[in-house]
Write a structure and sequence with these properties.
By secondary structure, the protein is an alpha/beta fold. Helices cover about 35% and strands about 20% of the residues. Bound molecules: guanosine-5'-diphosphate (2 copies). The site of one guanosine-5'-diphosphate has 16 residues, from α2. Associates with the 50S ribosomal subunit.
């Protein structure tokens, strides 16, 4: 590295930064209008989230990456809530529940100016049951005079209330320090307990693609080993199912089986649930209704799984209903609409007839293998050396940026850091990714490539 003009410390830092595995997850929960979205904006340091959203507009993004004091984590925003037929307590509880399930720690936001309400108490009960670490945020303390309001919230029994003004940033630093203490380094919920245990599958897809039918099919024909883990207000959340002689954990199956019928906000619940399931899983089996045109909603779900860095299998369902013409158009749609996951293993199934159910497990295993692939540094650099010699980066401004060396900083999914002598264009990065995929068969997994440029 030093020979190539890189400072060794920079190199190590870059590798460490890129090498993180799955990030721990922080959920931000609370009643409507207490300032959750404002706080999430603060935490992620962008104005990207959702306070500006018009009421009734479905939010498709619920998970964001954040960093505080050099540590990275994910934030699940539950601010997209809308009051619906369930009534306020049940609705707040339902949305909080999905988020809490997927979280390693929770920020519970209360409006200090209003004080604790019955709805807040309902969420407190939920938090107690879930047993996850909680940081209590007494929001809307915009100045010193509000501190007394915050101290009343000791009565919730959740420990010290952190007086915060999400709007102005007051107190958010101290609160985030407490968040970091509460958050495990790695996501325990998702992975820590999974070591040596069953692999976790999130079966996701838009409504009516056949998720519950598929689950019933696989759980019905094979033996259902045991219903693990009681949900908080719902029944079993994660289910162990034996497939192909191996026990798998299907996460959030209750969400699949019992659909919450809501007039408003149903799409939002669906998004939140999908995001939560994806966070808890190692591999996402994305179910797509082959009989219908691939929709924006399908694409969003795919993007969610890719962004979360999960292994991915695409299952085209309702194959029993496809005639020759539809099959032809489906292939065209897959090419144009789902090009971003052309690397994902694919199965054409029918939950109704059981067609190709046996192909599901090999596809999942392939995707997980890709997800865990580690390329030895020597092999990677031999490959990069040949690639760069045969296909140099285009010359820009009289200079030719070169990839000098690289290393795989992490797995699950594979993450690479490449060190370059100048700015590497997006097209060339994509070219490198394509060639890496061809060479090392990262089937079924997103791969991350970051490029460090020599100063
Ligand atoms: P959510 O429904 O919990 O996501 O709440 P929002 O983030 O949408 O905030 C609801 C309202 O409270 C908005 O008008 C915010 O501007 C306001 N708000 C949020 N945080 C603060 C704060 O710290 N101080 C004050 N005064 N208002 C706030
Ligand atoms: P979910 O909302 O994704 O859980 O979808 P469901 O499992 O409830 O299925 C929605 C509808 O599609 C139901 O009427 C199912 O009977 C039907 N369905 C599911 N899978 C198949 C399939 O493979 N073939 C056919 N023909 N219908 C299916």
């Amino acid at each position: 590295a030093a020979e190539e003009g890189f400072d060794l410390e920079d190199v190590e830092g870059a590798i460490e930064a890129a090498g993180h595995g799955p990030l721990p997850v922080l959920a931000v929960v609370g009643r409507p209008n207490v300032g959750k979205s404002t706080l999430v904006n603060r935490i992620i340091g962008r104005r990207e989230a959702v306070v500006e959203d018009k009421p009734g507009v479905t939010r498709d993004r619920v998970t964001y990456e954040a960093e505080w004091a050099g540590r990275r984590f994910k934030v699940v925003d539950t601010g997209g809530w809308e009051q619906d037929v369930l009534g306020i307590d049940a609705s707040v509880a339902a949305q909080a529940e999905y988020a809490i399930e997927a979280a390693d720690a929770v920020v519970f936001v209360v409006d200090a100016k209003v004080g604790a309400t019955d709805t807040d108490e309902a969420v407190v009960r939920l938090l107690r049951k879930a047993g996850k670490p909680v940081v209590l945020c007494a929001n809307k303390v915009d100045g010193p005079s509000g501190e007394a309001d915050a101290s009343y919230l000791w009565s919730l029994g959740l420990g010290e209330p952190h007086p915060v003004s999400a709007l102005h940033g007051r107190g958010t630093g101290d609160m985030l320090d407490s968040v970091l203490e509460a958050l495990p380094e790695a996501p325990e919920q998702s992975f820590g307990t999974a070591i040596g245990g069953p692999r976790r599958i999130a079966l996701i897809g838009r409504p009516n693609v056949g998720k519950s039918s598929l689950l019933n099919k696989v759980a019905g024909e094979e033996r259902v080993v045991v219903n693990e883990m009681a949900g908080t207000t719902r029944d079993p959340v994660d289910e162990l199912i034996e497939l192909g002689g191996v026990t798998w954990k299907f996460v959030d199956t209750a969400g699949i089986r019992k659909r919450v019928h809501l007039q408003q906000g149903a799409d939002y619940y669906a998004s939140l649930r999908t995001a939560a399931a994806v966070e808890k899983a190692e591999v996402a089996v994305i179910l797509i209704d082959g009989s219908e045109s691939i929709s924006v909603q399908d694409q969003r779900i795919v993007t969610m799984a890719v962004d979360a860095g999960r292994a991915i299998v695409l299952a085209y369902n309702k194959w029993d209903t496809l005639d020759e013409e539809r099959r032809y158009y489906l292939e065209r749609e897959i090419e144009t609409e789902l090009g971003q996951v052309a690397w994902a293993p694919r199965v054409n199934v029918s939950a109704r007839t059981g067609r190709h159910m046996e192909k599901l497990v090999p596809a999942i295993e392939t995707a997980l293998a890709g997800w865990e692939t580690r390329v030895p540094t020597g092999r990677l650099n031999a490959f990069l050396g040949e690639l760069v010699a045969a296909h140099p980066h285009p010359i820009r401004g009289g200079k030719q940026p070169r990839i000098l060396f690289g290393t795989q900083a992490g797995t699950k999914p594979p993450r690479f850091v490449l060190f370059a002598s100048g700015f590497i264009e997006a097209g060339y990065r994509r070219f490198i990714e394509r060639r890496l995929r061809e060479e090392f068969s990262f089937e079924g997994t997103p791969i991350h490539i970051s490029v460090r440029v020599r100063e």
